[in-house]
Amino acid sequence: MDLSGIVAAAKAPPPPSGATYVLEVDERNFEAVIGGSVKYPIVLELTSPRANAQALSDALTELANEAGGAYLLARVNVDASPQIAAALGIQAVPAVIGVVAGQLAPLWQGTKDKAEAKAYLAQLLQAAAANGVTGRAEPASIDADAGPDPRFAAADAALASGDFETAVAEFDKLLAASPNDTEAKAGRAQAALLSRAAKLDPAQALAAADANPTDVAAQLAAADAELLGGAIPSAFGRLIALIRDSTAAEREQARVRLLELFETVAPDDPAVLKARRDLVSALF
């Protein structure tokens, strides 16, 4: 079994702490930036120095960087770029608009605190996922002197030493503090998969699943074996079939594992996009 790709991804350092997902936008780059919304959501913040809304801008910057590329925050100074505000029909600022696959989704006008803004943005990400827009934005810029994010030091050290169970525990600590930390979610999923892989015989796992098609544990192990072997659509399809034909408790167990396995694959991988659509169909 070739684990080199997953091991490399798991051991890869997180984005530097100086990475930012906030981009200043004007008429010159507006269309190009919005074009990225076919891959990942865009959050447009339309503001002005006259709006007395620096607290909102600071909160949105923090949220965008915490999301780690789940969306790109595009900030427009309407005083410098009045044509953008006019085209969007903005009468007053601050205003925040989501863009998913080129479609505008007005979020709010006026100020919000960080918690309120986070709730609105979570709804935007849910809508984007439902429409298959689940890619990740590249950082708008990176401070080369910032170095690796120190939050992941313990987990990275455990991964580097091959102690995957400790790595899982370290990622769980991070997620307990920040449940929506996308980097921690991905790292935890990769570490958990590697931990299970260390105890897995792929041939035996697949044979056991074939012999026991209703055995949930056997199907979960077989899905791991298929994903590790590069048969990603088969792994996802196996779990979706289990979700479709199982009891409520078994369905939830398979759903949670499927979502975890999604985190180990690039979010814009066609197999992930198809499986997300199939999962919605299986659940409803």
Concise overview:
This protein is α/β, with parallel strands linked by helices and 284 residues long. It has helices spanning 4-11, 30-35, 54-67, 82-88, 114-130, 153-161, 164-177, 182-197, 202-211, 216-228, 232-245, 248-262, 270-283; strands at 22-25, 42-47, 72-77, 95-100, 103-109.
> pLDDT below 50 for ≥5 consecutive residues: which ranges?
7-13
Sheet bearing the most strands, described?
5 strands, mixed
Total domains: 2
Provide the residue-averaged pLDDT.
88
Give the helix level as a range of percent.
55-70%
Shape: elongated
- Order of H and E elements: HEHEHEHEEHHHHHHHHH
User: Which CATH architecture of the largest domain is right?
Assistant: Alpha Horseshoe
Strand content: 5-15%
- CATH overall fold name of the largest domain: Serine Threonine Protein Phosphatase 5, Tetratricopeptide repeat
Q: Would you tell me the structural class of the helices and strands?
A: alpha/beta
Secondary structure: number of strands: 5
For the record, the CATH class of the largest domain is Mainly Alpha
